[in-house]
Input
Amino acid sequence: MKLADEREWHLLLHYRKNLFGGYTSEQDDPGFFLSPNGKADPQAELEATLAQFFSDELVGRSRQPAQCAFVARYHWLKEKLRFDHARLAPIRCDRFERWLAEFNAESITLIFPSAFMNNPASMFGHTLMRIDQQGQTEQTRILAYTINYAADVPPDAGLAYPIRGIFGGYRGYFSTIPYYLKVQEYRDIENRDIWEYKLNFTQPQIRRLLMHAWELGNAYFDYFFFKENCSYHLLSLLEYADPTLHLTDQFLFWTVPADTVRLVATQPGLVGNIAYRPSRSTLIKRKRETLSDTERRLATRLIEDVALIQSEAFTKLSPKRQAFLLDLASDYFRYKIDTRDSDAAVYKERNRAILTARSGLRIQPDDLKIIPFAKQPELGHKTSRVSVGGGWRNDDTFEEVTVRAGYHDLLDPEIGYTPDAQIELVSLSLRHYNRAEQTRLERATLANVLSLSPMDALFKAPSWKISAGYQTIRHRECQLCGNGNVSGGIGAAVETQWLNREVYFAFAEADANVSHAYEERHRVGGGGTVGMYGDLTDRWRVMVTGSYLRYPLGDKSDDVRWFVGQRYTLGQNLAVRLEYTHRDRDNDVLFTVQGYF
Output
């Protein structure tokens, strides 16, 4: 029957084709295989599995008989080979049946918490699954269980964390966690909006998914931050639930959670309804938008001094508006408590006073529809980008092509992405200068990350940025010189709505450069940057920045820099840009057409 060649066997064992023939499993736990050669030999693992089914020897990390430790394998092979129970007696798997009964599963929902810029592992978002129980409502689904895959990272990982995470230095495990704990972590503590995609799986498909999830709880994968991450291995569960799906094949080099959600959402008939859970900060901001100017000032004062509840300014409001302001104040205090603010004890005491006052108003809270600041990820552009264009630099013209692995910058179309955030990774630009008759690597970006957090009366988080890369500069007599650069900064941002929405920002920053153009081949210094960007229309964004940097170490010099750029969106994955850059008597104008893939 050649069962070892069938797709479902390969899905169960996570086999991938090798470049030069043969197979290797992505599973890295030796206990997951019943043959010594099982990691690379599907036939040997099949034979060893069948043989082990006749034994009650305890195997795997869970120490159970093979029929129970690898229950999905057993049921698939039983279906294919029609086991004679008189010759191969079935073993009762009480632990599995209790685990399955606790789920009481009716449906599967894919969960996408949006990006969290203050944790490298969460900068691209996250995915997990919720197992919705029979009889649950939209209000009680928070009590359901989830299936989550994550790296087992020690609390004292420190600087080793990103390095080991990139190169597979941690083990990744599947776990079953109550959904309300994940909501508390993502929505309340990290302030991440959550998108929920209900999947149209049948009951047999749900059972297949849960059986394989039980098996994967028996083992670990080596965790790779960019490839075999939280999203990648969840896709393998969906594939076993419905083997007609081919999802993991689409991710050869890296797996971005937003891309996996986009892929799942585009599978015909797979996704049913889509639900949204706003973060607490989104909830507070949207509620504040509904206040009048007088109410907004009153809410700010109330948060600072809860005794204002007794003031005439508050009591003359209608009971309904009083209740709304008290709910808003309580939301803010809970936000400060959940985010472990240094004054959390003070906020707990204030919240107690607010709740006491609120309990005296027997008024149901308004059913306010919360509109997300960022739409669901499948509506956004794809995460890789190629740009083709040309322009003028000083007294020469050029053509340029750029390829960026990921992910999003401030001038990219913002739909589907976290507002005011930029993550660029692994970008290369090749440029041909016509008069100089020279083709060179113009720019190379290893990482360019920026997080703007517009401040207001209630939210005062700092903004920050960090970058590392290479660019071509003009410095003194050197016209086209390579320059390695590392920089970082801390700052602040504010937003206005004078035209549509504008964000103004300022940074104090440090900057280090290495180039043969400099005396002593380096310069180190710092300075500041100010800038703004704004949306003139839904498709048209402009951005202006100015910087002054002085370098007292190495090559003693300074830089005055200007940037003016604009982007116009032609389609979900197509845009055009016009950019002007000035840097130390060096002027560059670039027009590009950009496609996302």
About this structure: The chain has 15 helices and 21 strands. Residues 220 and 248 are 18 Å apart (CA to CA). The longest helix spans residues 319-338. The mean pLDDT is 95.
